[in-house]
Structure formats: C-alpha cells, structure tokens
Specification:
Elements: H1 8-28, H2 37-43, E1 52-57, E2 60-65, H3 71-81, E3 87-92, E4 95-100, H4 103-112, E5 121-124, H5 130-139, E6 144-148, H6 151-164, E7 169-172, E8 187-190, H7 199-203, E9 210-215, E10 218-226, E11 229-234, H8 262-265, H9 268-276, H10 283-292, E12 301-306, E13 309-314, E14 322-324
Parallel strand pairs: 5-6, 5-8, 6-7, 8-9
Antiparallel strand pairs: 1-2, 3-4, 9-10, 10-11, 11-12, 12-13, 13-14
Helix pairs in contact: 1-2
Length: 336
Amino acid sequence: MGEHGLGGRLADLAAAERAALVREIDASGAFAVDPRWREAFATVPRHLFVPYYYVSGAGGYERRWCESADPRGRERWLRGAYEDAPLATRLRDGVLVSSSSQPSLMALMLAELRVGDGARVLEIGAGTGYNAALLSYRLGDANVTTIDLDPEITESARRHLADAGYRPTVVTGDGARGVPERAPFDRIVATCTLTSIPSPWLAQCPPGALVLAPLATGLIALTVRDAAHAEGRFLRTPAFFVPLRGADRPEPEPVPFAGVPHRARENDLFRFLVALTRGVLDPQEAYALWEREGMPGRERYGVTVGDGHAWAWLDAPEGPYAWPLPGPSDPAPVRT
C-alpha cells in the first residue's frame, strides 16, 4: 500500500494532486503573509480528512467515497479532495452542518494568524480535523485545541487526526464558551460564521492575542487589549462559512431587498454591509450609506468590543458610522 493506505497509483495521484493544490494556493497569494504554511499544506494529506463528501448537482447531492466499488469513483473522490474548493462533509435533513473549507481560504486565515513558534491556538469548529492538523504540524499537538458542538463531528475529527498522525486536544462543547481549562490562548480562529464576538474568548486570551473569525461574510481580525476589550478591522477577502451552532442561536431570517436597485442586491460588498448592519439598518438605509460612501470595501470596516457591548464601524471606531452587533449586553450607540 502507498501513502496513508492508498494503492500505488492512487498514492502517486494523491501526492501529485496535493502538490498541484499547494501551487494553486501559492499563486493565489494566500501564503504571502507567512510562507511557512506552505510546508504544512504540502505535507498534511487532505484526503484522510474527507473519506467521503457530497457534491451538489441537479438531482441533489452526490456522495463521493474513498471505498467506492468503482475505481473511477475512487479517483474522482481523490481528485476532488485536492480541489481548491469547500467540501460538504455532513448533511442533516438536507441541510449542510459541517464542511471542509476551501484550502486557499484556510491558508490565508492561518497566515493572517501570524503565529510564532510555540503559540497556543484555539480553533472554534473542528470540522473534519484538517485545519487542526495543519496547526499541529506547524505548532505541535500540545499547542492546539479544537472544539465542536456535535459529538459525531469531534469523534470523526479525532479519528481523521489520528490516521494522519496528529493528536491535538479535541473538545466536544459549545464553541462560544471557549475552552477555559486549556487557556490562555495566543490565537483564537473560528471556522464558522458568528453574529457577535463571544465574551469568554477575550477572557481566555492574554493582552496582544489575536481573534480571527468570520462575521457578516467577512473576516474580522481583533487584537485583544484585556479580558473585556478588543478591536480590529476586517480583511479584504470575503468568507462564507457554516454558522456557529449552539443554544439560542436561531438562523437569521432572509433579508427583504424591496426598493434596492438590482445592481446593489447582487453586489458582494453591499450584501456584506447589509449582513453587518442586520437589525439596525434596513436595506434601503444601507444602500443610501453604501452609495454615499463610495461602495466601501470590507477593509474599511472594523469592530470594537468593550464596556459590555460590541459595535461595528466604518473607517474609525469614533467616526460617524457605527452599529451595535447583536448580543446579550446593552446596545452600543448607533451613528449613521
């Protein structure tokens, strides 16, 4: 048997496909901030973390499986495992609940963590375990903790990680609560979309720690000042992830875009602003602001956490535009 249990031809194909994926990620510029992640992606075998996945088609989802009786099916599975694309890995009643993220986006997020040797990282959303394996390769098992709400997901992540030779700490629990028994963390990275910044995360970080998380179709990078305060800006890149699941986190209602021009409805940057200001600005108000401010990119927005609440802002925390983020605390001022 070849690499990680594959037969000779498939083992060679896996090595070639992984090398091609690393070249594609490199060409995207995702490694630019921290090129040391290139070695992790070149070494950790993604196919071990996606023994099966689902591909959507006209008739629903097609399941691709490493143990397909058809050799061509196994080859399709393996080639798909190394595409620079997200892979649906777990469905419940036809709804996606877990996936393996797009590798180039994972690479960008890991590079933007700007970790040093020995940094302690908490990952929110264990998924398949692939991201935890990349972190473990770079930082060592002892410095990596990953958490997920679903015991089936954490159990399969543990199995995938062990098959690949990695043993970070895998915890079953509500990611919004963090993992206090493993704190402090120098970095917290979420691979699921948030609606607000959970306060336990900041309390589990020392000053100067970084929290990187998907929020409103963007990626917010927050620098922690202390257990109750953090601030930072969004990265330029868009990001779409499965929502953080847990108690009292209902799915958001669809946004009514009546009265908004079609060109804005289909614009990614406008939809980002609508998501960021959900419940505060209606789409018509968001459109007026978006036009007035020259269709601002994500990097012009930021988030501040402090004094018992969190708010998003455009250009500057104390500038003319600010909107509270949802959460259990008292609302922040609205400036529009």
